Amino acid sequence: MTTIGAKSMDRRDFMRVCVASAVSTAAFGVRGLSAAAKKRKPNLLFIWTDEQRADTMAVYGNKKIRVPNFNKLAAESIVFKNAYVTQPVCTPNRAAVMTGLWPHNSGLLTNNIPLPKETRCLNELIGDPDYRTAYMGKWHLGDEIFAQHGFEEWVSMEDGYSAYYAKGRDRAARSSYHHYLLGLGHKPAKQGGKFSRGYAASLPLEQCKPKYLERSACDFLHRHRNEPFMLYVNFLEPHMPFTGPLDDMYDPDEIDLPANFNDPLEENEPDKCRKKVRDCARKYGTTEKDFRELVARYWGLNSQVDLSVGAILDTLEQLGLADDTIVVYTSDHGDMMGSHHLVEKGLMYEESARIPWLMRVPAMGLRQWVIEKPVSQIDLAPTLLDLMGHPEAAADLPGQSLVPLVKGGKVAADHVFIERNTAPRVRTVVSPDRWKLCLSKEDKCQLFNLNEDPYETTNLYDSGKHEAVIARLTEKIRTWQKKTKDKVEVI
What we know:
By secondary structure, this protein is α/β, with parallel strands linked by helices. The chain is built from 15 helices and 16 strands. The strands form three sheets. The chain has a nine-stranded mixed β-sheet, covered by helices on one side. β13 and β14 (426-430) form a beta hairpin. The longest helix is centred in the middle third of the chain and has 31 residues, at 288-318. The chain is globular and about 65 Å long. The two termini are 42 Å apart.
């Protein structure tokens, strides 16, 4: 394992990565008209989940959870150890991942706002007709079950967003997964005519959503094994309802509760966070037993996804596609899952805003490279465009390619920014020296020293001891807001 960011690479390692990068350019950058040249174009397999916090695999510190396929992928990948979302809410951050735009630039500030047709996703930015493209699973960017944004194939899974379909869309239409269940003889609820998430989660493993996506993805790979492809697979799990066929996989008594489980939120913490503790108590309980059982089921959902991810990666290998395919694994945001007695997302705490991000790039070597420096998913699209030989397509995006960082160098922007666009609105910065400042005019501000307090148990904002840090990071936020045309006043 090579760690980048925590300490410097030696010259031999640096040269090895540079050589690998040259190989990447040779293998992935040629765009000739011959069949051989077409075959050398890199495939993209983009796998992501919903509500998966970072510490759900070994490389992020969890040695107990049984996710062998996550761990195997991590052993062959660039691992961004401190990767953050642009906003810890589903729709805004999904849009950022797909388009490379900040939520305040895309206009998708909260859930259930449709992604405009003219706003291009990564496959549209590349715009190469040689590629076969597919999106499978949860979309949550409008018109959920209808093919869009240049994807040739569309495997839909969620029927709960029909109220948000655009004018003219058939609200009685149902997802691909709905029709799959009908074919098995299942009958939807009489009221609404849909299969609920709870119903789907109660089914046997072979009929649940992850297995359905697994089979759909593997079928796509078989059909397009002789063509370059971009395949996105988005699992709903481990998202609520926090139940599934592997609920009994983990003994709650053997579950490790988060280190900050019993940390109370003092009076100087945001009112929203303290209110959410009370809401979570009513919804999920208050005792260690309540939370051990909840976390056990959550781990089970991660293990369920791991099984399907393993099957997809095995198919990639069996078809001889692994060496030509960039694999990305990440999530749209995390989940508090007991930290500070909180559950769900939407907060600036690490467990909500930090996510796993693995990136296997065969041309750079199948080994683990751990990058400790904080990075943002705003840089995901520019990084992939660079790796896939289309850096020019990122010219108008606010993010940057992280390929120089992977090579052991530096990037221009080394601070991470996170936003929240519903009341109370917040702007957050994480610095390379691991200070985290959260500013809001509508609620209490926060300051954490993540080096000394990684579980965010002590808000230092009003301590009077760190005014220079606050001033420095406040200026960073102001500069970023000006550069990205963010007009929200947070101080």
